[in-house]
Amino acid sequence: MSEARAAELAALLEDWLEADLTFHKVEGLARELAGLSREDCDFILGWIKRIATTHLELGWQFGRRAPKLLASMGRRQMEAWAVFACDTYDRVGLRPALQAVEQVENFADKQLELTAGVLFEDVAGVLGNFVRGLSGRKLAIVQGEAVHTDTDKIYLPAVIARLPDMDDNFRLAKAMVALLWAQTRFGTFRVDLIEACAAFPHPSRALAQLNALETLRLSACIERELPGLHRDMERLKTALGDVLPPAWQRFARRLGEPDASIEDSLRLLGDAYQLPDFAAWCFQGELRPDAVAGAFIARRDKEKARLRVKLAELLEEQSRHQPQSDTADAAQPPAFEAEVDDSDGRLELELTLDGAPVAPPEDVRQLLTSVWLDFGEIPHDYLVPAGDGEYDASLLGEQPVDPDAVWQGTYHEQGALFYPEWDMGRQHYRKNWCVMREKEVAPVFDDFARATLDKHAGLVKHLHRAFEAMRDENRLLKRQPYGDDVDIDALVEAMADARDGSEMSDRLFVRLHRAERNIAVAFMVDMSGSTRGWINEAEREALILLCEALERLGDRYAIYGFSGTTRKRCELYRIKTFEESYGDVVKARISGIRAQEYTRMGFAIRHLTDLLKKVEARTRVLVTLSDGRPDDYFDGYRGQYGIEDTRMALLEARRAGVHPFCVTIDREARDYLPHMYGAARYVILDDVAELPFKVSDIYRRITR
To answer: Dihedral angle at the C-alpha atoms of 488, 492, 498, 500, nearest 10 degrees?
Structure first.
């Protein structure tokens, strides 16, 4: 072992672990590391350095144990152990994180879970999209201790690791979701399961046997609906040794018939109760009728109120288009009827008004579907349009949490969204790190918009012409079989062909092709404290001019501001959503834009990327208007950490098909913007007052 090598390592450890402040004696660890191979030594050193950026004590405790554990754990598990300790620190603090480091043996016992298991946060989004694509009620995917559904949500555990292969564990999670969806879709909860099992000596055992019967029935439903997934489910059962006991085969035959229902499972429950306990299959969750009852009670009155109010709106709309005849019986109100066809496994819903078919909007269709799933029919009283003032507005939906109220008294995270953040030191994400709330800019109804248009009247005309030109950009297509004019070049070639006896082409015309625009743009406006004053005014003027021009162009666009203080208070301000029209309220919100706190950017980019992904458009663009680099209040975000997190958020946006662009007045931006955005994805203005004069050129550049 080289003493020089040990001394070199000790110097590095003293620097990374700040030994002059923490008083850690690093010489012994340095000698241990020097005795390892170069590759193993560099591996452990790298992780000590990463973990120390999270907490010095955590890095020291990891380093003390790492040399002895590397041989038994292997690098992949060591990495998982390190990330687990850092994630624990992020979630619950230093003491539990140190316990996670100290109890490494417990961690080693979970090797399969940590190396091949799938994490809830990694698969929840994919599985959420999967279940939304299935027929029936929209179900949220949330984390819970046990696999079950309450008919509003599907609960999955934090980790699924029954199999040695990660892809198979993902398939297992998907199979769990499919079976729970099938419980809501094919009527498992249309009867009172608690009452049905109460007559047995051991109701909980009866419920477990009923769950097994329903698993047989619903597996057959999935085989008819999703044959590819059913084949995966059969392979998973084989891999984990799940078998159907011989005594249960007659149940499987009956419950596998297309007309089988929950009533058939209940009729067979008496016989099944006499058999030994059914060993649950790998994708089989629990039946929790108490949770289902609670969700149904919470949903029932609200859905009835919403549906009747929506039908009243639909009736009013129909009346405007089809006025009631003089001979109509005014005493007999119009009647809605609904029919649901479930014969081929697909829910086909038909709504009629006085016998005439009516095309229900999507929200009405979803409500009707949800009611049918609960009852197996649409009760008549649900189809009676609501009268004026019949319902309290509180019955019509969840009341949003006031984003400012959470800061009164003890802080809590109710109603917030959570976003990860890239930690450049540990080279991993901090999961659910940023606590984000959407707020609405308080509108200011003044003459700001009119004054801006008057102030820049000449520029407004120029912008209108420029944006109308973009809208009307045409492309000349030559050698067409038909068109607006003769293609002289093609005609000359055709005549030459005719003279030498060749076949003459009929593609002799030119045609103007108007390019079809299919663009969605989100503008992300810096509302940090540094924009206070004339920068804020110039931003607001630029937004007014931009909106006026975009209205001529017809592109879909949204405007959001961003600011906040630390990761616990990340705030996004709604100014204009994609669905809103540009009117007096939006103008008033633009007028109401005021400088707030700091410039934490990663969460805002991630949230607006998610919003853009939901918009059906060929081209999606995210434009940031900012006066400086990412920054926040003394929590480590300032400097290179914030730049790297923002860069990672922009890379995520590009991977999602979103094109980011930045407009800034920071004269030092050339030091960091090329690293974050790329060489051609930003523009630096010498004076923010130039922004209103540059909007058309900038917009043409980013949407061409």
So the answer is: -170
Instruction: Provide the whole-model pTM.
Output: 0.60
Mean pLDDT score, 164-193: 93
Encoded amino acid at 308, one letter:
R
Q: What is the dihedral of CA 135, 136, 141, 145, to 10 degrees?
A: -120
Side-chain-side CA neighbours of 541 within 13 Å: the count stands at 22
3-class SS of residue 621? strand
Predicted confidence band of residue 273 (pLDDT cuts 50, 70, 90): very high
Query: What HEC string does 101-151 produce?
Result: HHCHHHHHHCHHHHHCCEEHHHHHHHHHHHHHCCCCCCCEEEECCCCEECC
Average pLDDT over residues 237-266: 94
- Calculate mean pLDDT across residues 273-287: 95
pLDDT score, position 254 = 95
Percent of the chain with pLDDT over 90: 31
Question: Mapped to the 3 state alphabet, what secondary structure does 562-611 carry?
Answer: EEECCCCCEEEEEEECCCCCCCHHHHHHHHCCCCCCCCCCHHHHHHHHHH
**Is the distance from CB of 357 to CB of 304 less than 8 angstroms?**
no
Angstrom distance (rounded) from CA 526 to CA 541 = 14
Mean pLDDT of the chain: 84
Domains and CATH numbers, the chain: 3-115 (no CATH), 118-287 (no CATH), 295-322+333-396 (no CATH), 448-452+517-703 (3.40.50.410), 476-514 (no CATH)
Q: Which of 215, 249, 212 is nearest to 230 (CA)?
A: 215
For residue 590, which of 438, 437, 450 has the smallest C-alpha distance? 450
User: In whole angstroms, how far apart are CA 376 and each of 109, 189, 224, 368, 379?
Assistant: 47, 10, 20, 11, 9
Average pLDDT in the 610-639 region? 84
- The pLDDT-based confidence of 262 (bands split at 50, 70, 90) is very high
Helices within 133-202 (DSSP H only): 166-185, 193-198
